[in-house]
Amino acid sequence: MDLSPLLSQIAVQYQLPPDGAHGLSHWGRVFENGLRLAKIEGGDTIVITLFAIFHDACRHNQSLDPGHGYRGAELADYLLRGNPEVTDNQLDLLKFACIQHTDGETEGDLTVRICWDSDRLDLARVGIRPNARFLCTDAAKNKKVINWANTRAQANYTPDFVKADWSQFFTVNRTT
User: Which of 15, 60, 145, 159 is buried most, with the most CB atoms less than 10 Å from its CB?
Assistant: First the structure.
């Protein structure tokens, strides 16, 4: 799936610095975390990919922001409803994953649990070590996976595709 049209549309309404704690590097690591977990556990990689770019796309600030997951889900619905590459079931899973991603849930559909884990594995970017009690899949609870994710998050690692492809849509200087 070509994410360029979606990223272009997300960028128009995005309010935070693209290089902030909830910005593009985070989205890229969530994407890679999710694909790594999906390779081990299974899961729908289309939903996992879309979760990476929508879950924090409608944040209003870098700290507590109740409702940002719901706003991200609404944006996903607006941009993806009727898209032939995304089924209604995939869109429903994506929206649920976005809405509930900050609530600490650990039970549910495998794909949704991978989405939540992919985000939680990136908590070290804000100084929080992921707690296995709040991770949903065996793959995410694996110490090697946690250490790999923590190292990347603490270093604010930015995947090459984020630099080369995603960042072009977020070039406007943001001051929020």
Answer: 145
pTM for this prediction: 0.96
Q: Compute the chain's Rg from CA coordinates.
A: 15
Residue 172, pLDDT score: 54
Residue-range definition of the domain harbouring residue 36: 4-156
User: Treating both helix axes as pointing N-terminal to C-terminal, what angle do 110-120 and 45-54 enclose, rounded to 10 degrees?
Assistant: 40
Q: Which residues contact 71 (CB under 8 A, 6 or more apart)?
A: 58
**Which residues lie closer than 8 Å to 112 by C-beta, 6 or more apart?**
47, 93, 96, 97, 100
Domain count within the chain: 1
- Kindly tell me if the per-residue pLDDT of 171 is higher than 80: no
The two structure tokens encoding residue 136? 């949903």
Domain of residue 128, CATH code: 1.10.3210.10
For residue 173, tell me if it sits in a domain: no
Q: pLDDT by residue (tens digit) across 51-69?
A: 999 999 999 999 989 999 9
